């Protein structure tokens, strides 16, 4: 099985970004000191420069728009909806009769 992904809080990410920006350490030096991969430091610095501290927040699992979830590509026409619901009803009736 794969390795579990580790998440880091904003405070930890900010410390890594500060070591890179304020202390002038390189990506690899910061990564070695903090015990993480240098690609994480690069990503955090990029996000911090683009969005500030807000860019260091957790982004996974948060819907971005008012319509939560994946939007439909086409709205379902009424006739297709009726057919689908009738088929569901028939299936449920058969299951209840068993």
UniProtKB/TrEMBL annotation:
Region annotated Disordered, chain positions: 56-78
InterPro entries, per the entry: Homeodomain-like_sf, Transposase_8
GO molecular function: DNA binding; transposase activity
GO process annotations (BP): DNA transposition
Name of the protein: Transposase
